[in-house]
Design brief:
Layout lengths: L2 H9 L5 E8 L3 E4 L4 E9 L2 E5 L10 E3 L4 E4 L5 E4 L7 E2 L11 E6 L4 E10 L7 H4 L5 E3 L7 H15 L5 H23 L8 H4 L5 H10 L7 H8 L3 H12 L3 H19 L4 H7 L5 H12 L3 H10 L10
Parallel strand pairs: 1-9, 2-8
Antiparallel strand pairs: 1-10, 2-7, 3-6, 3-10, 4-5, 4-7, 6-11
Helix pairs in contact: 3-4, 6-7, 7-8, 10-11
Length: 320
């Protein structure tokens, strides 16, 4: 079981929106918040990532160079600019028929910077603890041999975007999808091996990782602290204490969270009857499942499904 893939898959609510952005100095682009996580890839040139005055909490200005990737877990207002003092403007991308991404040009006639900017649409109603632990800004450099897989993905994106060729409509969205996994994997691998808490520690811990895998593989099983501890090969007390320290919540609280996350995904993506969703998430009756789901999401399962079906996907033509 690939827990990272499962976590992201459970939160995704649609395909990412993306725009090829070209700025010629002086240029500044003001980016509004979106429901999800933002990303920027510097394909060529350089620029600055700047917080807006109304952003809270604020991050420090971040200089970006060729190959740099930025991931914004809480996509607050922010600015991209050729220099910190350049005024920023709002931008709107244009989309050609059949193109997988939009295009946006702005600025003057100075040095050129080319970026891929966009957003992953994630369910932020109950974000997974792994995503919640991310810093406000994840900045990854791919120069000088760092993060070779991420660097490879950036290189492939650059090649596809520099010259439109047959198959780009399928290749570019797939690369952008893969980029999210590469970014989070690179961030996790950057965390110190001596970390005593957090998901980077939990996923490599010989006691907790097997228990997490068991929960994700079969959320409907009748797991208890005792059975999970036995799966991990340790005592109940040691397991419970270690799980809480690394994951950030008790084992059964995490089990309930994952069951509800799985249920929400099934309700959004499938048309199974509610009793089937209840069974697949470990509840013996539709009533018990509905009660637990409403406590977690504030809506009964049927209401959540109708709301998800009626909510339009964010318009891809709007700059992310």
């Amino acid at each position: 079981m690939d827990i990272l893939t499962e976590v992201l898959g459970s939160m995704r609510t649609g395909r990412p929106a993306s725009v090829r952005t070209e700025g010629r100095a002086p240029w500044g682009l003001s980016l509004p918040p979106v429901a999800g996580a933002g990303f920027h890839v510097v394909l060529s040139g350089s620029c600055w990532l700047l917080p807006r005055d109304d952003t809270a909490p604020r991050h420090e200005p971040v200089p970006l160079g060729p190959g740099d990737v930025v991931f914004l877990g809480d996509n607050h207002h922010h600015v991209l600019a050729d220099a910190p003092g350049t005024p920023a403007e709002a931008g709107r991308a244009s989309f050609r028929p059949g193109s997988p991404i939009g295009a946006l040009s702005l600025g003057g006639d100075g040095p050129r910077t080319t970026l891929l900017c966009g957003a992953y649409h994630l369910d932020q109603g109950r974000p997974h603890p792994l995503v919640r632990q991310l810093p406000e800004v994840v900045h990854l450099e791919t120069r000088h041999g760092r993060h070779p897989e991420l660097s490879g993905a950036v290189g492939l994106l650059r090649a596809e975007l520099e010259e439109e060729r047959a198959g780009a409509a399928g290749i570019v969205p797939a690369l952008i999808d893969a980029l999210l996994l590469y970014v989070l994997r690179a961030w996790l691998e950057e965390q110190p091996a001596t970390a005593v808490a957090g998901w980077s520690a939990a996923l490599r811990d010989p006691v907790i990782a097997p228990a997490l895998t068991a929960i994700h593989e079969d959320p409907a099983a009748r797991w208890s602290v005792e059975s999970l501890a036995a799966r991990a090969g340790t005592s109940r007390a040691t397991f419970a204490r270690r799980f809480h320290t690394l994951v950030g919540e008790p084992p059964l609280a995490y089990l309930t969270r994952w069951r509800m996350t799985t249920a929400a995904r099934l309700l959004r993506e499938d048309d199974h009857p509610l009793n089937v969703v209840a069974t697949r998430t470990g509840y013996g009756s539709e009533f018990a499942f509905a009660k637990a789901f409403k406590r977690a999401y504030g809506l009964p399962p049927g209401g959540y499904r109708r709301h998800a079906a009626a909510t339009p996907m964010p318009f891809a033509g709007r700059h992310a």
